[in-house]
Specification:
Chain lengths: 365, 323
């Protein structure tokens, strides 16, 4: 078990930066999720920590040791790969025992450790089978057993659930969390699935184009996204963004777009006066679908026309076109609304966000 | 619809075809019977044609070998009977007897086995190492070096024969590493120059690169060294390719004539091909003896091939089965 520190980590492939100046501290025993769309550099960070790639610059510290120039074979990390990477010619037992045999552990200890890991992941029934004779979920558990069997300092997981079907994914998610709870090993988990990130991570690090966008507990990242990218990446359907202008009239700040004015309440939105003053001009107003509702026509809301209805059982997502934009609103499932209705969209200003022209959230600056 | 028209293909076991099997009443209709017989005829005709084509080419491959049997079993007088007979009137084993009694056939055979087996084992080792390095290790100049290795494929054997001969001869004269260990008329002098083949390096590299990189990375993170990865992960997974390459090298070496002719011309290290050629006298040639010797030379290679045949098929299927 150990702490992981990344200092100004850079990795370029040719002239393309895959990881661009990422600094991150992961305390001992934490479950950290690296989240981002494909190609954002999250897997590269994992491979840099594992030592499968060499950093172009920056430092990687595991425990209290700089590991940049330590061979992956000696970093004592375990990695679970997306396609499991089980050795196809070895039985499950041999697969799990492989890292221990490599470490030249005495035979009776290997047997003991393998059966312990097998019991923990409930794979003892098929220890003598070959990987090709197992289902996806079983292979996944074998890969996990192989990872935990030698009690590594750190667990690295590269989208380990993405090859499983939806139901199994849900179940394995819970198993992974309870495994982490029991073993308490520092875990770095890569995924592009924001639901996985929200449910599993103690902290989430959001990446985009090789740069770290925001690090924090899931609720913080969701509730106070650092910038437009995080705001739209977290949450499905994503946060609604409306472009407009910020103007000062008397002592009040107004958000203005065609046919719509909104008084910005500093207190309620928790934005400092100075931040607002710096953002005069083009801004975006962001509100999550669940913080919006359809109000009656007399209210002071955004006017629009209902375009689509998506009932998903527990909720009803209403797509409303506001001029050229479309906005999604989450409503209770039995809401009486039909396509073509003229509506006004109301929302709670306290849950809205303002992003300045450089896309940063004004609340954070 | 068309599928439903072949109920005779499925007997006994229940399967999805039952659901679409035509009703009994349909079966008795004349169009059904006509369709069925046409279908069977077309299939059989196609198969017959395919076999005829195959047979034509097989005749070229097997014919000469079969043709060896007849003269091997004749005495030197009946060989020239006219009109010629394929099956001899009085088959005789005299030719074989002559080989064992009056020539050093057994010694040649032993030399050939040492030569072919030694070359096979050593070249598998060198080719796997080189192939692994080209497939998996990162080092400067890797692609250039691989290109150079491949380009030696274009150099004809005869062109390097003389330089190789001179190298082996000169090294053989050196103290300590020279004769009796290495040089002309030594086993190592015969074997070592044959153990590096660009084709083998290429083949091993191709096979090793088809293995998923993830396996290799997983093994590295599991703490395995390059040697351990090579022996525990890579070798077991490319076993079919190893067998194929092994058989290739064995057969090529077994039949190699030119190099043994120049490198081991002395009587003690003569191999079968060179030995058989020496049976061809300046004035008289015992064709029957020659045929008998050639026939016996073919047997071991054939056995080796038959023994490993299933691996051959596996290796050629390896690409198709890749996930």
């Amino acid at each position: 078990m150990a702490e992981v520190i990344l200092k100004r980590l850079v990795k370029t492939f040719g002239s393309v930066p895959a990881v661009d100046d990422v600094s991150l501290q992961i305390p001992d025993g934490e479950f950290l999720v690296l989240l981002g769309p494909s190609g954002c550099g999250k897997s590269t960070i994992l491979r840099l920590i594992a030592g499968l790639e060499d950093a172009t610059s920056g430092e990687i510290v595991i425990g209290d040791e700089l590991v940049n120039f330590i061979d992956p074979t000696r970093r004592n990390l375990a990695m679970v790969f997306q396609n499991y990477a089980l050795y196809p010619h070895m039985s499950v037992r041999k697969n799990v025992a492989f890292p221990l045999e490599t470490a030249k552990m005495p035979r009776h200890k290997i047997t003991e450790a393998v059966s312990k890991a097998a019991a923990m992941l409930e794979i003892d029934e098929f220890l003598d089978r070959l990987p090709e004779q197992l289902s996806g979920g079983q292979r996944q558990r074998v890969a996990l057993a192989r990872a935990i069997v030698r009690e590594p300092k750190i667990f690295l997981m590269d989208e380990p659930l993405s090859n499983l079907d939806a139901k199994l994914r849900l179940q394995t998610r819970i198993e992974l969390m309870s495994l982490h709870e029991r073993l308490g090993i520092t875990t770095i988990y890569v995924t592009h699935d924001q639901i996985e990130a929200m449910t599993m991570g103690q902290r989430i690090a959001v990446l985009h184009e090789g740069r770290l966008q925001q690090v924090g507990p899931p609720t913080e990242v969701y509730d106070v996204p650092a910038n437009k990218f995080v705001a739209t990446f977290m949450g499905a359907p994503p946060m609604n963004l409306m472009d407009g202008e910020l103007q000062q009239s008397d002592a009040n700040w107004m958000f203005i777009r065609e046919g719509y004015r909104l008084q910005v309440d500093q207190e309620q939105m928790r934005i400092a006066q100075s931040a607002l003053a710096n953002a005069v001009g083009e801004v975006s107003l962001g509100v999550r679908p669940e913080d919006m509702r359809l109000g009656d026509l007399g209210s002071n809301g955004l006017p629009g026309i209902v375009r689509f209805l998506e009932p998903i059982g527990s909720d009803l997502y209403v797509t409303v076109s506001v001029e050229s934009h479309s906005v999604q609103v989450r409503m209770p499932p039995k809401t009486k609304v039909s396509i073509g209705d003229k509506v006004k969209i109301e929302f709670d200003l306290g849950k809205a966000h303002l992003f300045d022209s450089s896309q940063n959230n004004l609340r954070l600056s | 619809m068309f599928l439903a028209f072949r109920p005779w293909k499925k007997e006994g076991k229940l399967n999805y075809m039952d659901a679409v099997r035509p009703k009994e009443s349909l079966k008795s209709s004349p169009s059904y019977a006509r369709g069925k017989s046409r279908y069977i005829f077309a299939n059989r005709f196609r198969a017959l044609f395919a076999y005829l084509v195959l047979l034509f080419f097989v005749a070229f491959a097997v014919g000469p070998v079969l043709y060896l049997i007849s003269p091997a079993l004749r005495d030197s007088i009946s060989l020239f009977d006219y009109p010629p007979k394929i099956i001899p009137d009085e088959p005789t084993l005299d030719n074989f007897r002559f080989l064992f009694d009056s020539t050093r056939y057994l010694s040649w055979a032993l030399n050939t086995i040492i030569y072919a087996a030694g070359t096979t084992i050593i070249s598998l080792f060198t080719n796997v190492l080189a192939g692994y390095a080209f497939a998996r290790l990162q080092f400067p100049g890797r692609n250039l070096l691989f290109f150079l290795v491949l380009s030696t494929l274009m150099v004809p054997v005869a062109a390097v024969l003389a330089p190789t001969y001179l190298m082996v001869r000169e090294i053989g004269e050196l103290p300590i590493i020279g004769r009796p260990f290495f040089g002309l008329d030594t086993y190592l002098g015969l074997i070592l120059p044959c153990t590096v083949s660009p084709l083998g390096v290429f083949m091993m590299r191709q096979f090793i690169s088809t293995l998923p990189v993830g396996l290799y990375e997983a093994a590295r993170l599991d703490g395995a060294s390059e040697w351990r990865i090579l022996f525990k992960i890579v070798l077991p997974l490319i076993k079919p390719a190893l067998v194929v390459l092994g058989i290739f090298v064995f057969m090529i070496t077994w039949a190699n004539f030119l190099w043994p002719l120049v490198a081991a011309s002395g009587d003690d290290y003569r191999v079968l091909t060179v030995g058989i050629a020496s049976l061809k006298g300046q004035f008289v040639t015992h064709w029957g003896v020659l045929a008998a010797a050639s026939l016996m030379t073919l047997i071991p290679v054939t056995i080796v091939f038959l023994f490993f045949q299933k691996w051959f098929v596996q290796a050629s299927m390896a690409g198709a089965l890749k996930q």
